[in-house]
């Protein structure tokens, strides 16, 4: 099978969708011919040469690939003659339809769906243009033979846009358990020069929908039961100043530590240094958690996870098995779960171990990529 992979989000750019694209391309190019079309990037050379797939970089920004990538997609369709065009998001679908009409290829079109891209409208402040954008999106969503949404939540978004459920097959995200794996707790804390205290961790972009303010508010109750607990926040973003003010307001500066952005290769150390990973996301349309890769990354390191039952998170956490789900924006419910895990470390470790087993099996990228490829082949 020959597969054309069209994506606006590809390494060396960093993010959840970039990781998704990278992991699928790496595995699919081991079992078939894959040609990637992605935006240009000044550091792309090392990434592209590390793949067995061929990569065509279009000299454009990610947001303009849907238009500026059309000539490249048609040219590659004509020369490569792909059986499948796989699109990382819906915006580029029109180019594959045009290529199909002009060249007869690709034979089938498949599209991923993550969440936010189905809600976000860059022209929302202009009513007439906003409705035109919505009509365009719904027209393009009629093109694919198959959608592979990353969660049931995202599948429901597709269905609300008029996509036939028969054309959707939920394929949750995965994780690489060889990159994210358990390390010795004490060694990692020493390497990070961390105090040996009960530790909560969040990794992610600092934006309101991640729910870090809920965790900060919950921490006040946690400290009454676990006085030496600390909360590490890895990441940066526009909400940082508000969160720091909230920490100061509640006199939590000795317990909450803003680490900032860290190298991707350092993330396993932080996941392993934590006793509990926590991210109680909430829906803040158009900003939503379509899945939550970080929960799988933490689980792969043997760390139990706590998230909120919002967006696609229930597909990332098996409630009561690999971690716990709490109501969104509920500091009291969150505090109860965090205290229980911190005061019962043996139970927390057991949940983390089950989470690790989950990521070695059906939540591994190897399993996800193979299962998705099976569904894609079924369209031919």
Automatic annotation (TrEMBL):
Residues 14-179 form the Glycosyltransferase subfamily 4-like N-terminal domain. InterPro entries: Glyco_trans_1, Glyco_trans_4-like_N, Glycosyltransferase_grp1. Keywords: Hydrolase. GO terms for molecular function: hexosyltransferase activity; hydrolase activity. Residues 195-356 form the Glycosyl transferase family domain. SUPFAM superfamilies: UDP-Glycosyltransferase/glycogen phosphorylase. This is Glycoside hydrolase.
